[in-house]
Specification:
8-stranded antiparallel barrel; 1 helix; Porin; mainly beta
Length: 164
């Protein structure tokens, strides 16, 4: 029983789209690299704003129940299992896609431990959901305008994807 040596895929969710690679480091641990667009929205009394901004993520994942799933004849293809992860993401202020003008993000790094599950159906279709609580750190000169240099964040994810 072991994680896949290397898998490549694409995922989307309510708040973005990403391409990723999971590279096996041991029987249960992978390093996931991800490039994509994170999305967000906010509303005021007279306006609804949607935005997308680039993100680069490195995430270590420990798939801790592969042997148990295999012993019960459950699918472990494409690393289908439960995992604990340490997600580290960088959102640079390169560009922003938005329905409003002059919307920018602040350069930031987030570090979030999380618990999640991943399942594969029909050999290539993947589903992931997870939760974590961590910290976001605002970087550079743009952060001088903030009262806070960091804050606690909740990471909820629900994604569907295709593994090649």
């Amino acid at each position: 029983m072991s994680v896949e040596k290397s898998i490549f895929g694409i995922q989307t969710g309510l708040l973005g789209i990403w391409i990723h690679n999971e590279y096996g480091l041991s029987n249960q641990i992978v390093l996931r690299s991800e490039l994509g667009l994170d999305s967000g929205f906010f509303a005021s009394s007279d306006e609804f704003t949607f935005l997308m901004t680039p993100v680069l993520t490195l995430e270590s994942r420990w798939y801790y129940n592969l042997e148990k799933r295999n012993a019960k004849n459950k699918n472990i293809k494409n690393n289908s299992g439960n995992f604990l992860a340490l997600k580290t993401s960088y959102n640079p202020d390169l560009f922003t896609i938005s329905n409003a003008e002059n919307v920018r993000v602040i350069n930031q790094i987030s570090i979030i431990p999380k618990w999640a599950i991943k399942r594969t159906y029909f050999d290539h279709l993947t589903f992931e959901t997870g939760v974590g609580i961590g910290q976001v750190f605002y970087l550079g000169k743009s952060s001088q305008y903030l009262a806070k240099k960091s804050e606690t964040v909740l990471d909820l994810h629900l994604r569907i994807g295709y593994t090649f």
